[in-house]
Amino acid sequence: MARRKRRLQFHNPSPYNPKRRRERSPFNYRGYIEEITICRHIDTDSSVDLHDEAVSYRYFPVINDQSRTRTSELSKIEDTLESSKRLDPSTIEWIIDSLAEALDGDDVNVCSVLEKHNFLGRPDVYGMVLDTLTLDFPDMKGWIENLVTLVLVLSKKETIKVRHIKKILGPLSQIKCFKDPSIKNQIENAVEMLEKRERYEKFQEDSHSQIKVTASVRRMLHDLITCEIFPTAEMVVKDEHFPLFPRSLRKPNKSPAHYLIEQFSLFLEDFIGPMRVGIKHYIEYVRSEEKGSRFKDDDVRIYKRIRLLDNDCIAGSGICLQVQFDTSTMKKIRWENCNFLQYGNLVCLTYDDCSELTYALIANRDVKELSNGRIYLEVIEKDQQNISSLRQINESRLVMIESKSFYTAYGHTLKSLQTMAEEMLEKNEDIPFSKYLVHLDNDVLEPVYTRQPTYEMTVANFRCLMKNVKEQQNIDYDKVAILDVTKWPTMLEMGLNEDQYKALQKCLTKKIGILQGPPGTGKTWMGLRIVEFFLCNHDLFKQKERRPILLLSYTNHALDQFFEKLLESKHLTFLFRNKTQPFVRVGGRCTNERVKPFVIKEHRKRTKSWSTNRSEIYNSRDSVKYLDTLLKYLQNGIVSAEFLHSENIIPRIQYDSLSYYRYLDFTLMSNDRIVEWLGILENYNTDTENQTADIQDANVDELYFEENDKRVLDDEDEVNDKAKEIEKQILKLFTLTAKHGLENCSAQCHKKMLSFVRRNLEKRENVMKIQLIRGIRNVWFLNFEDRWRLYRFWIDELTMKLQHRRKNLIDYFNEKNKAVTKERFAEDLDIIKSCYMFGMTTTGAASNMTLLREIQPRIVIVEEAAQVHEQHVIGCLTKHLEHLILIGDHKQLRPTMNNHALKCSHKTDVSLMERLVMNKFPYHCLTKQHRMRPEICRLLTPAIYPSLENHPTVQTYPNVRGMKHNLFFIDHQSPESQSNFSTSYANDFEAKMIARLYKYLILQGYSNSDITILSAYNEQVRKIRNEVSEMSKQLRVANGRCNQRVHITAVDNFQGEENRIILLSLVRSNKECKLGHLGDPQRICVSLSRAREGLFVFGDFDMIYNRNNLLWMKIIEAAKQNEVLGRNLTVVCQKHPETTTTISCPQDFEKVQDGGCDQLCSTQLKCGHVCDKKCHADDTIHDLGCEKPCLKRCENGHPCREKCHKDCRPCTTKMEKTFSTCEHKIQIPCCEFYDFRPCQSECNRELGCGHPCTLKCSQDCNTVPCRKIINVKHPQCGHMTTVECCSKNDFRCTEQCSKVLKCGHTCTLKCFQDCDILCCQEMINVNHPQCGHAALVKCFEKNDFQCIQKCSKILKCGHACTLKCWQDCKIVSCQAMQNVKNPRCGHETLVKCCDKNKFQCKKKCSKLLKCGHTCKGNCQMCSNGRLHIPCREVCNRKLVCGHRCSYYCSNPCPPCDDICTRGCLHMKFEPCGHLCRKPCEPCQELCGWNCDKRCNNKYHCSRECSEICDRPPCDKRCDKSLKCKTSHRCIGLCGEKCPNICKRCNKSKVLALLNGTKNIDEALFVELVDCEHIFEKDFMDEYMGLHTRNESSEDKRLLLKSCPTCSTPIRRSGRYKNIIIAMERDLMEVNRKCEKFLFFKNDLCRFRITDLIHVCQASRIFSPRTIRQLFCIGNKDVKSILDEFLNKAYPRMEEISRTKIRSTVREMKGTFCVIAKWILLHSKISFTEDELEKLLDEVERSLINADLIIMKNELKSELSSEDMQQIDFQIQKVRCPDGETFCREDLASAQSLIDAIHRSSSTSCLDTLDKQRRLSLLDVQCGKHGNWFKCKKGHIYLSEVGGTVDVPRCPDCLSTSDDPETSPVDEMNDVGRTLTPAPIDEEVKDVRCTEMDLSGDDVDMTAVDTNSPT
After folding, report:
1. I need a labelling partner for 123 at 20 to 30 A (CA). Which of 185, 515, 902, 1713 fits?
2. Degrees (nearest 5) of the Cα angle 1147, 1151, 1156?
3. For 114-127, how does the pLDDT look when each residue is reduced to its tens digit (9 = 90+)?
4. Is the pTM of this model over 0.70?
């Protein structure tokens, strides 16, 4: 469009005068607005062809003409805005006109200029516009016209922030000279649109924004991040802990950081505080002298005599430590019921007085293991190294301290809060919704998704909330704006009452929706409606990517109920169309069958993802089980010889001898030969020791995982239990175990055998020595005692081998378990991201904080929010959160706290929901309850809920059957009790009363599902369960009403639940009137609001009333008024309503034992009997059958013994029967009288041998041989023995053989065995035939045995032999120690005699290095002082910033990592909190350095605090008066800090400061702000270089000035501020140069030197271990240096190897290896120039030495004796010179000799070798240590310490000069060294400093300490 020509330049502009009256403007607004509208229409209409000539000419006539000048014009504007802080009116007009002119074709750049410089928000621009437009008749000049155009166009640009144009738009809207209303409408529309945009921007900023964190808060956040969650022993003793902050309940926090610190400190103290106090009490108990009583503490439990067993593999926990504790004092504990050692509890292992604390978590709670005193612990990662030291402690000293804190509910949340603090510290990230949660702004905005990017309201489908189908067919609710509640469906259409309707509006239209629902008002139902709405409109919240809704619940049961009701919703069926599972239930212990398919474990199964890591972890766990079972069986059975041989335990020769048993005439299986070899069959019956001992089988304890439901977070994947299969496999390896024995062996014999085996295996110390085992050839020649000693040795060897294998398997399992954990996390993340909603408990959310931070849910719904810790909710809030809905009731149960004292002092049990309600956040309370009958509801109103109303449905409840009252309080005075092992309480009277009342109600026709029994204490719950269990055994009811167990639980576990009848036990009854948590109003509310139809409460109400609890007093008084409180409970007979019975004690229920009254029932049953029970209300009992005896008889006249209702069984009455054949008489049952049965009496016939028959009468005597034991004489040997009668003619004599062997000794075999094959085992004294030594040997070994006496021979070296006599002295090296002088270095060393020619000198170097530290190497590592190893001491050099370097001394000093200590007056001189190497954020405040009011100079600094001051220092004396006396004047300077001394009152101090240099009356003083030391002005000016800093001809050394007295860095001063700022800028420049060093430290990957491996292996220089180090090297220069060195050393090593002179080859190999290892020591550090210089000399020396050796061996036939002597002389000089005497002249002379001989020799022995022996180190980066300097041209460089140049010189200036002097590098090159710094890319980026040319060398910040002037 054609515009009016605008002024581009202003010549001689008139000054701006706001008071001058302007003329009325002739500006035509109507035409102007029409042109703007047409122009904008052309810009946005896609149908217009922009290339059309007419259009282009008409609307854009100046685009082509001004396109060349527009960019330069905008550049001028930017330069003007940057350079000028205040603009004159003419310049403002020019800028407005120019920007309006450029708006047509370059609107993007115009917007950028306006936003960058905030032009419209500048005070001068705004003031000029305001003064002009507020006139009555403003002169509408061109710049105002352009301003209107600019503002109207920019108001439509979304890239421009609202705050940039809203301020200027206000005055424009008040212009009074607008005749055309269209321009007025345009401005009004722009204002309205900006308001919408501003609100939308507030939504986005409110969701997540950046904050500013002060230095002091940064330190607190840093302490929070680094805080140790588990206290050390020192912290416990000193009572040190993270500081506690009072909780801000009714006032906003100072900042999000303060809020985060407060929440962390309180949550940490609630978790660890009780345990810390308990440990401290135990330490005091241990250290006390009197320990008469047992230690008892309410916070911790002590377990003594702790024994650390092996590690084991536990699913879900990884590697766990098994611990055994003493249970001798815990015999009465029922582990299945008590809360001791619960899963997830925190324990602490320690000893003595708790000087060392090791923390662990209970990983598995196995009741069977607990009864034996065993538990599995998961040691926390940082304490795992302490376990090895604890194993060394005696078990009597070790103790285990258990805390009651559940770690998972705390630990992960604390880590999440630390992560939030870390993000806040590093990225300045705010807490989500901090505006509300931190600052308590109760003006809650709507969620972000309710507004579209165009600022319009988002529409949603409300049909899912419709209940009346007929009405919704006529009205379209598919697209209704969420925020426009007037267009919502009505209450009737939704099926809601007024409260529910308003609550739904608040929840859907506020970022934080709070819904309070008293008991029975349907808050869970409302939560379901809200979730249905979100799921049906899930596309609204999808945005860029779909993020599922998070549902949090306090319990697993409530979570399952919520999901189950969601599945019943008809509006959500579309989510299941594609056979997908839209929900994910995270966690374990899901008991609801409908919800189980949605558990995350089932999702994992459906993904069918399988990994090798997971299969390997299962296999390794089964292998560990296999080994554990096998190790257990080894101590209880006999393992087969085949298995021992397969494990290489039995040598082959011994195994073959064991298998050879053909001479033994036994019919045993081959697998049982080891049983016979051990003599078990012959000796088990003769061993009478402990025959009656209790013999138990070696059963394998199967591992199972039984955890508390509340603490289970996730069910592990099911793994097949292979325990039985493993046991079957192991049994195949044994010949005799508890599971099976030998064939034809009775059970009693088997037990005796096992007892015999165990007793022999327990003799573990009696094991055969390995020296004797080596000489055994035939194991059958050993006697039985030696055989068992040998077998025990085999078992010990096998046990050690299996334990080693088990340790490797556990390490492998641990490695794979970590990999599986990562895979599981990624898998769960994919599963949850693909669903629409996922739910978990608050404890599960605490343990999955990392998962939640990855998912970033936009909508979070918290069920029972009033019972959830605020920290749990905070941890679930992520930066993408848009909507938080809290559903609960803060008048019911609060969060459960672990630290009761902290709860009372800091109100830590107040939830987030309750805190917001306390601060008047918008919420709505439901007031119509649908649960309790009116009389029960009246207990809560108005005492708790003033406005709670009853729904009509509760008025129609039936009365409780058999009871006079539906609500009754039974009063009693029976005292409470408490057990020794519990802090809970119980009441026997109430337990018995409730159990009998429960039985009575069941007899009234109620089922177990209709009744719930509640108690305020867990101990009472257990007691009631036992009583009810006994009562249930006596119940006999029909219709399966008692098939389901009655629900008996604590009150805290029943919130959110309800039932028809509630029986409540209050328990407490004591003389002290202690209520405990029974007086908690929230717990009272829950207790009394669970019943629908009937509530019966048992308690000591007189005691409760006397406690003066206001709420209980109101309830008791109301109960008394309604006559529902008393000591007697009245029950009514249903059959006879006029009959009532009074119950006052448990025995009174006997009056109504059948549930009615004392009248007889007398009802005739179907069988004809009459019911003889007393009156009972439940007639269905008659259908169970008659209990009277049956009247029927059998055919023999015997009466039936069954009940009437049962079928008659066969008659079992005994009758006498006589057998016709043998006339024996027997007693048999009536039903078997006529059945055929053989006679079972004893046979009285005689056998052929004369002995009586032992068979039955009906059996044939001739079929079984006689088994009578008789004494018989053996026909051959004549021995008398006892045998069976049938074997008297053919038996073996088992008596001891009495024959004499050939050697003269008596035979030791049995009589029937062949003596000729036995080797005599008799021990005899024999002299060895060769050495003559006497020895005690077995008889059969007397001609062939080894002498075991000590050898008396002398070795060749002169030392006595230390071996046995039978061993060969020649094959063993002499081990005698002797002092030997090393031929190379001359040091004496104590070495073994065998190593005297090949040892390495280990004498400590102890030389003083260049850095000042002592060398830690030895003579061999440091090459006799020529090449010292890099220094590993801490650097501790003083950096430029004043801090000390904490890096290795041998490395260049990196940038400083300490906390910055800089600060300014506006920060109250507090440090900024950043790292020292990072630039501080510039202070934007004005400097404020001004002269005093009475000073004549009137100096004033007008710049910002972070800039160079634009005023000189004032030398006038300060006019202020001192505190000592008003007449005493300050001795300081004007505008500076006044010194704290007076020259009159403290004259001696002032004179001491002057030290005679100046008159006291003339002197002025300066006090340093940093350290408060005082100095004379002139001295300090000279010291700081205030007036002379540019006069020196030398380069200035960069070092932060410090106090001359205390060396504190001077960082804060007004007088020297410019010097300090300049120095800090130079300091940042030094930091940037030092960052080049970080590229070596962090950015480079490790180098893999694969191309050098083959060279290293072939050269035989490196050991395999050294070669492995080559694969990962961090310094790239090591590769090039090592490569070049090996290329020179490898050929020479090959030549020397051909000489075959071992000593020479070994020596040269050692020399080259030392050099190579020295190079590898720099794998992670850089080289220094001095080290490289010494490396060059050492490499050259070693190569010259090698060349001399090669020449000597190759040319020995050609050289004369004189030449050989010269070569030997040179070899001796360069062989191993001392580091102090070594000089290059020796190398030069040796080189000259080599050259001379080479020239004169005809043989070219060195031609194949590299003649360049000195390394040429190209592109090697060298680290430097020295001082930083700055030259006159501004270059900053590092000068080496101890360099060759006395005066530092700038390398940049030298490189550009015409005639530079020789640099230190050039001087080094004169001796043959080439050092070229590697090129490094520069990245210079600093807006505060000027650009400089940076050097590419590796640099550091080191500054040498100097003596300050005094």
Report:
1. 185
2. 135
3. 777 777 777 777 77
4. no
